[in-house]
Each structure stands twice: as C-alpha cells, then as structure tokens.
Write the structure tokens for this entry.
Amino acid sequence: MRDRSNPVKGAGPSNLLFDTWPSARAAIALLDDALAGTGLDAEDLAVYSLLRQAGEISPVDLARWMSTPATTVSSYVKRLVARGHVQQVPHPRDGRSYRITLTEAGQDAHTTAGRHFLPALTAVEAALPESVGDVQQALRNLHTAIAAATERAL
C-alpha cells in the first residue's frame, strides 16, 4: 500500500486546475491498488462501467468521454478486443463505423473488479466532509467548465 499523504503540507501549485491533479492521481492509485489481481486497472474499470451502462458506444463518443484522441481509443479498443472483453459491432446507421460493447467475459471481469472497487468507494465516501451528492455536483460543474474552456480554446 502506497503512502498517499501530502509529503509537503501547503507546497505546490494552488489553483483550481492544479488542485485537481493530485486528487485524480490519488484516486487512480487507490483504485489500481484495490483492483490489483483482478486484471483491470482504474482506467479499465471506468471504461467497462461506461460500456456496461451504455450497452454500446462509438469510438468517437468513447474518445470524447475519455477526453483522449481517437487514435488512443483505437489502440485501447484493440487491446480490449484481444482480451476478449470487448467486441466491435456494426454501427446501425454508419456502415464505415462500429460500436463497442462488452462481451460476457468483459461483464464478468467488470463484476469481479466491482467487488474490489466498492470498499474503496465506501471508504472515500465515508471520509468526505460534505455529502456525496454535493461533491459529485461540484465535480460535474468543474467538468462542464473545463469542457467549455476547451471548446473556447479550439
């Protein structure tokens, strides 16, 4: 288990965007530790969760959701297909494209990883000084603001 405490209290950048970075890194490290031995890491669990909820998603929509280039998603999807956890199905309206969906093996892997994820989630939620709903709303607001700033920068 890694020590995630801040090694230098009050040190480092302090602004809204920089302050999100250590939180994101700490969340990924916590989840990677919790998921050790499941065959999935934090990013995999997030993508599998999205696919399980959506049923099917296009690579373009997945890239948008992950805030990553389409080429990165293409490589990622190839890796998941090779694992047998994802399949590509023809896009219903665009014969040149496809949609991504979890296979039964992918759903099983997600379920197993989810059992390891839940205790970490419960511990984080219990340590919050505010309600889970308030924190989630603040994160959604931050994501919306970052997306708007990104659009303006383009």
Notes: The CA atoms of residues 44 and 93 lie 28 Å apart.
